Fold:
Amino acid sequence: MVTMAMALFHRRRARAGHPPLRIDNHRERRFGRAVVGATASTVLILAALTLTSFFAGRSVASLSGTATLTVRITGHQWWWEIRYPGDNPSRMIVTANEIHVPVGEPVKIKLDSPDVIHSFWVPALGGKRDLIPGRPSELTLIADKPGVYRGQCAEFCGYQHAHMAITVIAESREAFDMWRSRQDAAAAAPVGDEERRGQQAFLSTGCALCHTVRGTPANGTIGPDLTHLASRRALAADTLAMTPGALAAWIADPQSTKPGAKMPRVALSADDLNAVATYLGSLE
Structure:
């Protein structure tokens, strides 16, 4: 870019001081050397970046054998299903759109997609992998310091592709173990009439056909697991903040927030809507 700017600047000066068809051989030779030098510099810079990327990628890939944690991520239109396998397959932790990892430890991410091509990408942690139906893939991530890292689907996957974000929360091993212990528990029983009414409305409508709430008869697998919904930072793949108002708005009319999402509008009375929102807001 600097060479191009210099060429344009000198061309303008040349036009101002010389006839258009006059050729200055000395100037032409100097420009020729500049072009050759700039081209060689570009090739060297690209080669250095390519080699650096290759060796860095190989170093990260070599850590997969030392990973202390494995996370399975499935890309859906348009949300991320996240599973933490355990020693007992029946006690697998299932959540959505939010990954918790311990700081400084390699984490193996296993990726797949049941519908279209998605792409998992958390820029601050490096690495990008496509999720191609029928072709599982994996990568290894390491968070060097605690923090919240935003990721995004990087492959156009449909109408709501831009609203398919993912969050990685890196925390100490102690904090991660505490989070995992809480996630491993079944949903808290409702306490109070409003929460009990909300649970009943949730189970008696179409909600329970698509979502799971462990500890209740709801065991749907089409939508995200809601067992600990209120512990998450956001709704609808980081489209809405996790607030009582946003939760009620999302339940009332998800299509107005995320048109094309597979969550339909469920006909609920105002009282039932408030009760369901209160119940789900208690699931921490």
